[in-house]
Amino acid sequence: MSWLFLIVAGILEVVWALAMKQSExxxxxxxxxxxxxxxxxxxxLLSLAMRSLPLGTAYTVWxxxxxxxxxxxxxxxxxxxxxxxxxxxxxxxxxGMITMKMSSS
Length: 105
Description:
Blueprint: H1 2-22, H2 29-49, H3 55-76, H4 84-103
Helix pairs in contact: 1-2, 1-3, 3-4
């Protein structure tokens, strides 16, 4: 169950990052509210996952899902550039998350 909490927490991190971008510096109430609610949910689920997962593993996977997810959303939804170097960087983050997961007991 901890891994499910962690994955959903990471997805919520992507949600709040996108909503923060759309809030335009917290000047738009709707996206600002989504940002705050998603942040609280993300942190709450991360804390539940950390009850049984090692700190380093949980935090690495959580931030990795958020970073790569935000990158993918930026490219797919916001039309940000997909360059070879950015794609390699995202793949390195994913490989780090996989390695961290495999090294956990």
